[in-house]
TrEMBL record:
SUPFAM superfamilies in UniProt: P-loop containing nucleoside triphosphate hydrolases
Top-rank taxon, per record: Bacteria
InterPro entries per UniProt: AAA_dom (IPR025669), DNA_Partitioning_ATPase (IPR050678), P-loop_NTPase (IPR027417)
Domain AAA: 1-180
Family recorded in the similarity comment: To B.subtilis soj.
PANTHER family the record matches: P-LOOP CONTAINING NUCLEOSIDE TRIPHOSPHATE HYDROLASE (PTHR13696), PLASMID PARTITIONING PROTEIN-RELATED (PTHR13696:SF69)
Transmembrane segments: none
Pfam families for this protein: AAA_31
The protein, known as: Chromosome partitioning protein
Length: 262
């Protein structure tokens, strides 16, 4: 099992879209893929037609056992999606109350890790979607993940947000005594606008080693796919946005192999 977190403290940068698109593409390649919604807003859950306000079982259930994860519970929480080979561990809006409840609970930062350990042989890839704020859920994701994707919108304010995210990452990694390799993925790139082009150049200059060499273009098909409740590649295999994410999947598979070869 390889576990990738997709995170950025900045909102609306394409985290959920990246999780669904990458998950769909990996599933199309025959991989067994699990996407996990760690955002109390439940956008990933809603994408696949489940209502985070009323859903009976979700990631929330994992946090109800004093830092332990009962045997068999994670598997019971998983549901199907419209995409064969792609499973979902959904969120419920109750997750918003976690910060308050989990204060001082031993092992609270390792719940997602422990849950995924139980599913180790059931999935090839796990993608963790995150809420745009640092809290117990993001700490769980960063502790469980082996790789991190940081989507960044190609505009100046978003680049400021990236600095904040990297600072947070540094802090969390120091406390977890862990090093997480990360890949910065420019999103919503519009080559016709100066703002997009300039910010991509700035990203290239500032993060030459961590920046993915391509960018995900602006593509309205992503919104169409979320409205239809399907993965973008099942709506349109060859749209520009999907093609870009296909390159990113190649990069992910290459990084996975490098790690496994060590
Ligand atoms: N490459 C893209 N081109 C055009 N629109 C996009 C692209 N990626 C995402 N979007 C749209 O931008 C909006 C925000 O995307 P998304 O929900 O994936 O971001 P997010 O980082 O998960 O947001 P949040 O922080 O609120 O969870 C959505 O309406 C989505 O359809
Ligand atoms: Mg989201």
């Amino acid at each position: 099992m390889r576990i990738w977190a997709v995170a950025n403290q900045k909102g609306g940068v394409g985290k959920t879209t990246s999780v669904v698109t990458l998950g769909g593409l990996l599933a199309e390649q025959g991989k067994r893929v699990l996407v996990v919604d760690l955002d109390p807003h439940g956008s990933l859950t809603s994408w696949f037609g489940y209502d985070p306000d009323t859903i009976a079982h979700s990631v929330f259930d994992l946090f109800q056992h004093q830092g332990k994860v009962p045997e068999g519970l994670p598997a019971q929480l998983i549901t199907d999606t419209s995409c064969p080979g792609l499973s979902l561990l959904p969120a419920s809006t109750a997750l918003a109350t976690l910060e308050r409840r989990m204060v001082g609970v031993e092992g609270m930062g390792l719940i997602v890790s422990r849950a995924l350990a139980q599913l180790w042989d059931d999935f090839d890839y796990v993608l963790l979607d995150n809420t745009p704020s640092l809290g117990v859920l993001m700490v769980n994701a960063l502790a469980a993940a082996q790789h991190l994707i940081i989507p960044v919108q190609t505009e100046f304010l978003a680049i400021k947000g990236l600095e904040r995210m990297l600072h947070t990452l540094e802090m969390v990694m120091r406390s977890q005594k862990n090093r997480l390799p990360y890949l910065i993925v420019p999103t919503m790139f519009d080559r016709r606008t100066q703002a997009s082009v300039k910010s991509l150049n700035l990203l290239r200059k500032t993060y030459p080693d961590q920046l993915w060499r391509f960018a995900v273009p602006v593509d309205t098909k992503f919104r169409d796919a979320s409205q239809a409740g399907v993965t973008p590649s099942s709506l349109d295999r060859e749209t520009h946005g999907v093609r870009a994410y296909r390159h990113l999947v190649d990069e992910m598979l290459a990084q996975t192999e490098t790690v496994e070869a060590r």
